[in-house]
């Protein structure tokens, strides 16, 4: 059985003041929720968020990490540093980093490996662009991204992986993939995981991301191979995010 998971990616939004309002609101509203919940604020707010989350079941995640444990890497943050401030999760290979920082599949896989070695659970993002989907390449592109990741991680590490299918055309656009489009991709990814290691397909959690809102979450999370979501803009609104987490609640029992 796979427990449902909802992760909020604040991206480069917010302030300490905003964190002081949003995080306690989530802690209060999501007490006892039967889904795993993660919030991923920007680096500067991680220690504050960690304090605000103390005693709650909501976990803390970061949005990126460097492959090295320490070193002459100005501006970067390592896995052990993230652990030190209370993170247990980290997003890796988000399309905004792939596009804006030229992160390629090999680097993404190395970051996932660095996260796992540091004891963090990586949420690795894959997804095709609008042009790739329009030209019928979506399944091939996403399978290629996942294959590159699996090739770099040993089978033991692959077990600890969470994958997020985030079609680039659905991120921040208000256009979400239909539940059927998302399910089709998730089903393929699960089959690919299964052919990599027996049992991995059934165990690996697969999130959908891209314009998930309270209004469409239940329909998406109700699909058999969708185990939750990676949420961008809606994670900045307590009411929206809580409703999305509630939509994930209980979905795991039949998956
Ligand atoms: P969005 O972002 O929910 O704002 O579309 C999702 C993401 O980038 O993870």
Total number of beta strands: 8
Mean pLDDT: 96
Superfamily (CATH H level) name: Aldolase class I
% residues in beta strands: 5-15%
Counted up, domains total: 1
Q: Tally the helices.
A: 12
Overall SS class: alpha/beta
The backbone outline, from C-alpha atoms, is globular
End-to-end C-alpha gap: 6 Å
Order of helices and strands: EHEHEHEHHEHHHEHHEHEH
CATH architecture: Alpha-Beta Barrel
Whole-angstrom Rg: 17 Å
Provide the CATH topology.
Answer: TIM Barrel
In the predicted model, the low-confidence regions spanning at least 5 consecutive residues are none
Structure characterization notes:
It contains twelve helices and eight strands. It is α/β, with parallel strands linked by helices and 255 residues long. The protein has one domain: Aldolase class I (TIM Barrel), CATH 3.20.20. The protein has an eight-stranded parallel β-barrel with strand order 1-2-3-4-5-6-7-8, surrounded by six helices. α5 packs across α7 (138-152). It starts with a strand and ends in a 7-residue tail after the last helix. Bound molecules: 2-phosphoglycolic acid.
